[in-house]
Amino acid sequence: MAAELPSQQDNAFVALRQFARKRAAVERCEMCSRELAHEHEHLVEPANRKLICACGACAILFEGQAGTKYKRVPRRVLFLQDFQLTDGQWDGLMIPIEMAFFFKSSPHRKVIALYPSPAGPTESLLPLETWDDIEQSNPVLKGMEPDVTALLVNRVGHARSATQAEYYLVPIDECYKLVGLIRTHWRGLSGGTEVWREIGVFFAMLKKRAGFGREAANA
Fold first, then answer.
1. CA separation for the pair 32, 205 (Å, rounded)
2. What is the pLDDT of residues 193-214, one digit of tens each?
3. Strand locations in the chain, DSSP E?
């Protein structure tokens, strides 16, 4: 029997390690440590663009509050079906790929343009006059809430007329979710089929959240 003890002890330690890993995988509110569901609220710290996981009770404390360290990230997604952006205006933004997001930064007092890459979010120098022209053509952008809401642009395939360009007003955490998705699934020089499949699923879910096509489906 004594010979079996090391094996039993090893099994016990394995079970403990597995339990510890499972416990560590549980997401918790970074304000009160309450356990969170997979889909949960976020706060953003505008000074360093840091996202913080939060429960609903903690997140609501920062709803519409001015001068606080954190801001509550909204949940609403809008699909901008009638968005106006010419190819010339897009070229004027000097984004090296056909996908980017734009948000108004209150600490920097300007619009910041970022695009996803396998290395993470990359900032692009944004000519202010070009953004002003786009905002003039799309008044919905004037109501974009600083730091927490972003214009997300997907023009992949648009230049080849393979797909239509898509424009969304989204919570800022969705933009960083897209960045994380690309970092996780990108393979080789072109990304591979898996990453483009995941990107397609991501934008399909955004459309669903925006309720796009719901009226037509119910007609």
1. 30
2. 999 999 999 999 999 999 975 4
3. 41-45, 50-54, 71-72, 78-79, 99-105, 110-115, 122-124, 149-154, 166-171
- pLDDT at residue 219 greater than cutoff 50: no
| Residues composing the chain | 219
State whether residue 50 is helix, strand or coil. strand
Q: Which single residue is written with the structure tokens 């000519």?
A: 127
pTM for the model stands at 0.82
- Cα separation, 103 vs 131, whole angstroms: 11
Which residues are CB-contacts of 147 (< 8 A; sequence separation ≥ 6)?
44, 46, 71, 103, 104, 105, 106, 172
Q: Which residues contact 63 (CB under 8 A, 6 or more apart)?
A: 72
CA–CA separation, 48 and 196 (whole Å):
29
Residue 105 structure tokens: 């930064």
Domain map (residue ranges) of the chain = 2-71, 74-218
| Cα 101 off chain centre by | 9
- Distance (Å, rounded) from C-alpha 219 to C-alpha 216? 5
Under the banding of pLDDT at 50, 70 and 90, the label for residue 160 is low
User: DSSP string spanning 160-190?
Assistant: TTSS--EEEEEEHHHHHHHHHHHHHH-BTTT
